[in-house]
Amino acid sequence: MAGSGVFEEIFDGEVFKYYVDGEWRKSSSGKSVAIVNPTTRKTQYRVQACTQEEVNKAIDLAKVAQKSWARTPLWKRAELLHRAAAILKEHKAPIAECLVKEIAKPAKDAVTEVVRSGDLVSYTAEEGVRILGEGKFLVSDSFPGNERSKYCLTSKIPLGVILAIPPFNYPVNLAVSKIGPALIAGNALVLKPPTQGAVAALHMVHCFHLAGFPKGLISCITGKGSEIGDFLTMHPGINCISFTGGDTGVAISKKAGMVPLQMELGGKDACIVLEDADLDLVASNIVKGGFSYSGQRCTAVKVVLVMESVADALVEKVNAKVAKLSVGAPEEDSDITPVVSESSANFIEGLVVDAKEKGATFCQEYKREGNLIWPLLLDNVRPDMRIAWEEPFGPVLPVIRISSVDEGIHHCNASNFGLQGCVFTKDINKAMMISDAMETGTVQINSAPARGPDHFPFQGIKDSGIGSQGITNSINMMTKIKSTVINLPSPTYTMG
């Protein structure tokens, strides 16, 4: 059971505690927030509803802890991160159990997320030692009109206190992708986990606690976004915000003030299929890319743009694979599990109803039980349908038939989103030309979009985000350059 054994101190028998100053505490509010199991649609867990005063305290403590942490040798910081990674992997089972119950992630995928998170933390420690251990040396006479009278030494220094806000769909992995770089770079960290996924995140934070990080350096604040969300993101004590999620990110960016922002805000990832593509490869990637974790991934295939001449053959192959997907509970490792909430299911249904009214071809019957939506491929989707542009975040995938590559590129680029895209063709020249033309942060050639490996750069353009992620980019983004200039005395003698 989550909250048992090594995790006993994070749970008081009814409510999970929040983490501050190296301790697990109950909020003075006396209130809690319910976490509803998407499968049973009943309350599974409760977490503390922290107050603004508790947020202030966490940030004040973080500021103090960060000063001494920044002076801690780099190898010691790395050592603690390696220790946290090992503890995280050791306790993958109870953390994965939380993911299954909070966000209906299939059991095997939940375990994979925790293991991947441990690997990410270890890699971050190694990469941090490499890139933070290097500085730069400049001499003044490399710029016109200057003598060699100045030496400039540059190094990377921490920003201060980082606010990390991960999303519900990867509440552990996308938390450590922010925590690891922040800590190795010498920053303190305040984590505000999503409500669905908060208990898995609290378990993960306990692994960092057990690793022995200094008190106050890491805090995990739970609560209602309406009460502490804006308060956190607009707090003068926060020096950088790393956010992954949806529309909320736009509001944060408008309110945050002059702090560095790292944001990944969703996508409408297009898959362009050319006539010469290997259709078996395309079909398996569309099913994996469009339906894994019930389509609740920012890098899921969200629209298929296929050349008319191969569309019938491709749709037939995809339908054959969709028919084999298992639908049911996450505990049973079903391919398709319930979406995260009733409001999410209702939104997806709205897109389906709109597509039906406007004449899309339903390749399967639309079926829903509670939050569980059966996988659905919609053929002959047209640009006047909402599903052509909006992100369903569910197991519903539109197919738009195109008569030219330019038509596909135009549809992709007309979207407000620009996270990832993919193109399937055997012609590398065409693939590269299409990649150059697609307005997205990443283009995958002959594979479905994906965020990993976690050290690859990961970024979106337009409404898909600000800045770039990936371990190296995150470390660089969570530091700033410090220059020290040595002014040499004027020569008063000649060397002979």
TrEMBL record:
<protein>
    <recommendedName>
        <fullName>NADP-dependent glyceraldehyde-3-phosphate dehydrogenase</fullName>
        <ecNumber>1.2.1.9</ecNumber>
    </recommendedName>
</protein>
<dbReference type="InterPro" id="IPR015590">
    <property type="entry name" value="Aldehyde_DH_dom"/>
</dbReference>
<dbReference type="GO" id="GO:0008911">
    <property type="term" value="F:lactaldehyde dehydrogenase (NAD+) activity"/>
</dbReference>
<keyword id="KW-0963">Cytoplasm</keyword>
<dbReference type="InterPro" id="IPR016163">
    <property type="entry name" value="Ald_DH_C"/>
</dbReference>
<dbReference type="InterPro" id="IPR051020">
    <property type="entry name" value="ALDH-related_metabolic_enz"/>
</dbReference>
<dbReference type="GO" id="GO:0008886">
    <property type="term" value="F:glyceraldehyde-3-phosphate dehydrogenase (NADP+) (non-phosphorylating) activity"/>
</dbReference>
<dbReference type="InterPro" id="IPR029510">
    <property type="entry name" value="Ald_DH_CS_GLU"/>
</dbReference>
<dbReference type="InterPro" id="IPR016161">
    <property type="entry name" value="Ald_DH/histidinol_DH"/>
</dbReference>
<dbReference type="InterPro" id="IPR016162">
    <property type="entry name" value="Ald_DH_N"/>
</dbReference>
<feature type="active site">
    <location>
        <position position="264"/>
    </location>
</feature>
<feature type="domain" description="Aldehyde dehydrogenase">
    <location>
        <begin position="24"/>
        <end position="483"/>
    </location>
</feature>
<comment type="similarity">
    <text>Belongs to the aldehyde dehydrogenase family.</text>
</comment>
<keyword id="KW-0521">NADP</keyword>
<dbReference type="InterPro" id="IPR016160">
    <property type="entry name" value="Ald_DH_CS_CYS"/>
</dbReference>
<dbReference type="GO" id="GO:0005737">
    <property type="term" value="C:cytoplasm"/>
</dbReference>
<dbReference type="Pfam" id="PF00171">
    <property type="entry name" value="Aldedh"/>
</dbReference>
<keyword id="KW-0560">Oxidoreductase</keyword>
<comment type="function">
    <text>Important as a means of generating NADPH for biosynthetic reactions.</text>
</comment>
